[in-house]
Specification:
- This is Phosphoadenosine phosphosulphate reductase domain-containing protein.
- InterPro entries: PAPS_reduct_dom, Rossmann-like_a/b/a_fold.
- Pfam families: PAPS_reduct.
- The structure is a single chain.
- Helices cover 47% and strands 10% of the residues.
- The protein contains 2 helices and 2 strands.
- The protein has a two-stranded parallel sheet with strand order 1-2.
């Protein structure tokens, strides 16, 4: 059996702490995957912040 590739996945809430961790990890784990669990009950500002963070993270 071949080695399977390890996936790194970081959950982002839209808050400052998860954003800071995502930015910190971006350079350390370049193939990091990010996930946001959308409850469809977030504040409009949260969606704007997530969009900006997504653009920044690439």
């Amino acid at each position: 059996m071949g080695k399977s590739k390890v996936r790194h996945i970081l959950s982002i809430s839209g808050g400052k702490d998860s954003a800071a961790l995502a930015i910190y990890m971006r350079d350390r784990v370049p193939d990091m995957e990010y996930v946001f669990c959308d409850t469809h009950e977030e504040l409009p500002e949260t969606y704007e912040y997530i969009d900006k963070l997504e653009a920044f993270l690439g």
